Batch of 3 targets.
Target 1
Amino acid sequence: MSNPIKPNLKTDILPILLLIITGLASIYFYSVFPERIPVHWNMTGEIDGWGSKTFGAFMLPIVMLGLYLLFLVLPYLDPRKKNYKQFSQIYHGFKTLILLFMGIIYFIVGLNALGYSIAVGTWVPVLVGVLFIIIGSYLAKIKSNWFIGIRTPWTLSSEEVWNKTHRFGGKLFILGGLLMILTPVLPEELKAYLFIFIVLLVSLGSVGYSYFLYQKIGK
């Protein structure tokens, strides 16, 4: 099997650096973490989950490494691998973006465990919002495949439905990201409702639109 978008130093230098940095940080964090550290916060920024220092130091770097390897393997496995050449830069960009997002979250969690007061309830929604906006800006450039993008039975059955759904879905992601960035300034009782609304807007909106288009085109 050949890889349609073989990784090279230019495409993977940033992901590899992120993995090295978080790997080295995990060794340091393990040496200085207390035995029990916060690992999860609720929508209001309050700690609602604790874990061991081993879990806190190593879990996210291991997940990041697993995701990186998964990104390398997916083009080999996809029956529509020939399409990857048409969005190879976007694919490598998404790989770097997701690892960068997870790396930032890892350091926010780690520094909080060391006693630094970083407002998780403020920074995480903002980071998620920025992630959504960037993804939405490039979503329309992803070509039909089985692993990346808005994959429904209707987008996978029609290239026209795929393209139009991704243009529409990109706008929903951008709108959802802008709303997510507003989360920290909202009253505490509204934050959870806004989050649910954004998830429903992006997911059900994209799925519903792809079904509507498929039915319209089919008729």
Target 2
Amino acid sequence: MIFGENDVVHLYMQGHDFATLDHLLVDNSIDLETAALILDNVPTFIRYDEMCQQQSQQEWDHRCQANWYMPQSYKDLDIAEHVLSLCQTDAELQRCGQELMLFQERNLFNLLRYLKYLVDVMTEHELIWGVGRGSSVASYVLYKLRVHRIDSLHYDLNPNEFLR
């Protein structure tokens, strides 16, 4: 998350333990010198605009994915095995295997783990989410994880539409 001055003040007033963070990503509304004096237990403030200039899109994505909250059990989950265990036919196994290789080539298994966690939390709390949008419905793996409700295998949707 990118924090503005109001966000940081709000967290500070709520007694948030900033010491648990290795850095805080902030926008240009924050005076870093003043913030460092007030929040002396935050190791590093990083300006979002400066970080964007210094990192490639892949580096940025990797950094963001590394900071998602997710219980250790989801971080340790063999997502490929889990997805394949949800398959009931040879056609489903073949399609999921093909897509999982595409996800792996793009280093997106952590994203799949996070989506599994997110869907589980939404289900547990009886939250409603959409049927599916855009190119994501072309992914049968996302269908099996219940991210969307469009059976892309049934409609013969090309997974490359999603993972291009």
Target 3
Amino acid sequence: MVVLPYDEGFGPTEKTSTLLVNAELRKEYGQLHAAIDDAKEQLLKAVRQQAGSRRTDFGTEISATFTNSDDFDLAVTRIRDELQRQRDAPFASVKYDTIFTEQVVSALNTPALKNTVEDYIQRYNQLLSASTYFRKEIFDY
């Protein structure tokens, strides 16, 4: 069988991977992905325990929060980089479900609150830029 270098109609399937991949490499690839999936589940379980939450889909929530997409790997990479720079965890004992209730989430999604927060940020930045003594690098939201 001859497979052209790029033929969109002949997309990747289980049969093409069987045809084109060495069986030993395919097995190693499967084992690596199984180990990655297991590590992800262990991470999510640890996050759930630390957060004191009963929620089950932390992967989706983490992805959406840190990447505005469903790219969990990218989100974890961003978080890892931020955690490496972080010196302490002042809110580690706060339970996630205490803060993010249905009422809080729906309030955060209202246009009025979004506009108020945006106005606050703009005014805060104006004050810092006009100040002789206070700078953005020193003071944070």
